[in-house]
Amino acid sequence: MESKVTLSKKVETYLRSKILNGELLPNDKIVELDVAGEMGVSRGPVREALKTLTFEGLVEYQTNKGCSVTTLSPKDAYEIFFMRGSLEKIALERCGGKCSDEAVLKMEIALAQMKKACGDDSLTAIIAADEMFHRQIVDMGRMSRLTKMWQMLSPLNGAMFLTVKNSRKLGADVFDAPSANKYAVAHKNNYEAHKVILEVLKKGDLKDSCLCLDAHYLIVGEKIYRINLEEEARKAAICNYSAPPR
């Protein structure tokens, strides 16, 4: 007989996959009883799974309303991009931008996994490969507390990817405006973007490596922040325009 923890992990994986792959959309309700029926489990494991997904930023709980699919706010998304990028740049500064052979090997493995995941259009697998790739960068700093700070943001990585995915649906590319950063160019997919990062990191130039991470994190974060704020303003304007006069 499977334990409650094992069952909750299964439910968690099931729901996370449905959210990341777009089968469940933002604001869709998640009813404990319905999920329990679909998975053939009691409501306890479903409740535990929803707690984890709420912590990850993929689900929101509201009193008297229950759980629904959510996305990170523009501010939250920007903060995660900023903090991840900053921590990884600190790690690079600590090692002088020089990557170890082991780190390069692991990033190459992660890159191969990401290429396959992009081909399969599996956001879940892309996120896992992304975690492995960037973990090598932060580990090069050889500071356990730095790594722990970075790991605290890891559970939100799925929500961050989902925010990027939803922002692109709004019709704006994250690099559609000129930038002084030479690495701020559009890439076909995550594999192509990380391929460029690895090529730059291998050269061992600290300044260029930090510029590349800025393009990957900070510029994208700022752009997504702006796209989402513009969309919120557009929706508010439509709502105000259509509201009947009092």
Kindly report the average pLDDT value: 87
Order of helices and strands: HEHHEEHHHHHHH
Individual helix count = 10
Structural class given helices, strands, pairing? mainly alpha
Radius of gyration: 20 Å
User: What separation lies between the terminal Cα atoms?
Assistant: 61 Å
The amount of helix comes to 55-70%
Q: Care to count the β-strands?
A: 3
Percent of residues in beta strands: under 5%
* Widest beta sheet: strand line-up: 1-3-2
Unreliably modeled segments: none
Report on the biggest sheet.
3 strands, antiparallel
Q: Globular, elongated, flat, extended or rod-shaped: what is the shape?
A: globular
Q: How would you describe what is shown here?
A:
The structure is a single chain. By secondary structure, the protein is mostly helical. Helices cover 69% and strands 4% of the residues. It has ten helices and three strands; from the N terminus they run αβααββααααααα. It has helices spanning 4-20, 32-39, 43-55, 74-94, 101-120, 123-139, 144-153, 157-168, 190-203, 206-242, and strands at residues 29-30, 59-62, 66-69. The protein has a three-stranded antiparallel beta sheet. A hairpin with a 3-residue loop joins strand 2 and strand 3 (66-69). It starts with a helix and ends with a helix. 33% of the residues are buried.
